[in-house]
Design goal:
It is a single chain. This protein is an alpha/beta fold. The chain has 14 helices and 14 strands. It has a 7-stranded mixed beta sheet, sandwiched between helices. It starts with 11 loop residues before the first strand and ends with a helix. The model has no long low-confidence stretch (mean pLDDT 96).
């Protein structure tokens, strides 16, 4: 068999991730590859740390991109901060709280689960009650921006509760970073991880993480070796630490790091608060259009992530058929529901470079077409007009 070069179709990515990649980021990836210990590359690494500190709103020295996707960022936090025999309170209000539980168990620790309904934020009172019932707990873990539902939890409140009970916090903000307010230092977050492929508009494969001094002290005082050699921060920091001389740990994904650097430069140029406001504005326009089609979201307005919109599938509509039509006829990708929401919602992403007027209007028009094809009582053009009215206002 003769194989040919792979040429993917040009899609508009409006699912839960990856998001559309900024052309500047794609261009950055094509720049010449140099060695991962080259002095010029090391200079770029130092810039990267500063850019990530800006994105996270932190001065944490231990801020770097893990050379793997967001799931590896999650594992980096758990394997470095959790030891065998520990008790960890895990707040679960979607898929990714469940993945945190899995990490705790694989570290040889005991998870105490605080469960909330999918589509709801983490309930602070439930966390308070769990910590009172389990005073031996050393860590609290929760998701800031739950990708499976589009719900946003109150990081500062949850962190304050955890600290009052003597616990460090691990926060998942894979979908949050760059798209919604996040202030690591002001909110007292001890350890946090994200992903490159969501609101940063970079390619998948890198996971920004940040650890404060309290988290670093716990890492230094461990009684057990970190179970993962690759993710052991005491080793990784020999490569990502300051100074011109770097210890060889692994061959970094050089061109992918060029891409992340460029995406963070773009974010800095726009301004972090401007980026947050842009995501909110595009969400409001999308919501206006969805309203005209009678489509509702599962998350209450005060807890919604603007960048991840979980939309209820109307009765009698084949949700998979709608997604297939959008992909086949419009080259438009939206996401399906997960777990108990499978078949019940679509997840429409407005992330990073993809959070723009063109995508919102395109998505609404295509969704109208797909629903009309299934016999929905929709007047074509009304959704786009409603969104345009929001932009005009």
């Amino acid at each position: 068999m003769t194989f040919k070069s792979f040429h993917p179709p040009v899609r508009t990515l409006m699912g839960p991730g990856p998001s559309d990649v900024n052309p500047r980021v794609l261009a950055a990836m094509s720049r010449p590859t140099i060695g991962h210990l080259d002095p010029v590359f090391v200079d770029m690494m130092d810039e990267m740390k500063g850019l990530l500190q800006y994105a996270f709103q932190t001065r944490n020295a231990l801020t770097l991109p893990v050379s793997a996707p967001g799931s590896a960022g999650m594992e980096t936090c758990f394997v470095n901060l959790v030891q065998p025999g520990d008790t960890v309170v895990v707040c679960a209000n979607g898929v990714f709280g469940g993945r945190m539980k899995e990490n705790v168990e694989r570290c040889g620790a005991t998870p105490v689960m605080v469960e909330d309904e999918w589509g709801k934020p983490v309930d602070p009172q439930k966390l308070e009650d769990a910590l009172k019932a389990h005073p031996q707990a050393s860590t609290v873990a929760f998701v800031h921006a739950e990708t499976s539902t589009g719900a946003c939890s109150d990081v500062k409140t949850l962190t304050d509760i955890a600290h009052r009970h003597g616990c460090l916090v691990i926060v998942d903000s894979v979908t949050g970073l760059g798209g919604v307010e996040l202030r690591v230092d002001d909110w007292g977050v001890d350890a946090i991880y994200s992903g490159s492929q969501k609101c940063l508009s970079c390619t998948p494969g890198l996971s920004p993480v940040s650890f404060n001094e309290a988290a670093v002290e716990r890492i230094k005082s461990r009684k057990h070796k970190v179970q993962s050699w690759f993710l052991d921060l005491s080793l990784v920091m020999g490569y990502w630490g300051g100074g011109t001389k770097r210890a060889y740990h692994h061959t970094a994904p050089i061109n992918a790091l060029y891409a992340l650097h460029e995406s963070l430069v773009v974010l800095q140029e726009e301004g972090l608060e401007n980026a947050w406001a842009r995501h909110r504005a595009q969400h409001e326009a999308l919501k206006a259009g969805l309203d005209t089609m009678g489509l509702n979201m599962i998350v209450a307005p005060e807890h919604r992530l603007p960048q991840l919109n979980a939309v209820k599938v109307p009765a009698g509509v084949d949700e998979a058929a709608v997604r297939k039509l959008l992909l086949d006829e419009f080259n438009l990708e939206i996401g399906a529901g997960l777990g108990p929401l499978a078949g019940k919602v679509w997840r429409i992403g407005l992330m990073g470079y993809g959070a723009n007027r063109k995508n919102v209007l395109f998505c609404l028009g295509a969704l109208e077409t797909a629903l009309v094809a299934q016999g929905a009582d929709i007047v074509p053009g009304r959704a786009v007009a409603a969104a345009r009215a929001v932009y005009g206002a």
